[in-house]
Amino acid sequence: MIARIIWQVFLLLAAAVTISLQLDRQSALVPALADAVPAPARGFAQAQLTARALQSGPPALAVTEARRLVEKRPIPAEPLRLLAQAQFAAGQNDAGFLTIQIAAKRGWRDPAAQESMLRLALAAGDEAEAAKRYIAMFLQNRTEDALLEEFGNALFGTAESEAARTLTEIVSGSDRWPETFLQRGARVLPPRSFVQIVRSAHASGAAFNCETLKAVAPRVTARDPEAGAMIDALVAGSCP
Length: 240
Hints:
This is Sel1 repeat family protein. By secondary structure, the protein is an all-alpha fold.
């Protein structure tokens, strides 16, 4: 008899856990279900509660909900980014700065975290750090070209800037970078700075593919004829 009762209780508990987990997953599609998910089972639901608190709740509640989200998902960068956003909204600037730095270090593939760090670095006048965050965004296909162009104009207006020097060093020191840099950089960077960075990186030993150089030259020319003449000269002098 006792064994049967224990078995029935176990089945009820298992059913409750299963239903809670299913509700939690469903809350990702139907945010209104988040409140119905028991606290221990909240994963997707906690993300919804955090987003709601950030959008319309008092800042203190947003911080609380974001902390709970980080406790449940401590590794990904996005929960930390949401916590930083809540901390800034609550006036906890020192804590927010620290949190967003941690988020950016963990989330090199999270464009939003990198964008936050880039903006902070720009505000602080740290061009080298801003350039590194720009690169992290640049490498992600989901980062929109329009955003890269906006930040590119702010950081690389001249090839003599600290940001441009940092970018040149990274392009020069990586086997992976030159091809990617040529193809996307021709679209999003200021044309003259782009060509000058290519020239400097080439002089420092970067191995640019001649076919890619020839392919991007017309794009550069269309944006800036003077920059186009510069890249044409580079192609003529470097490629057979």
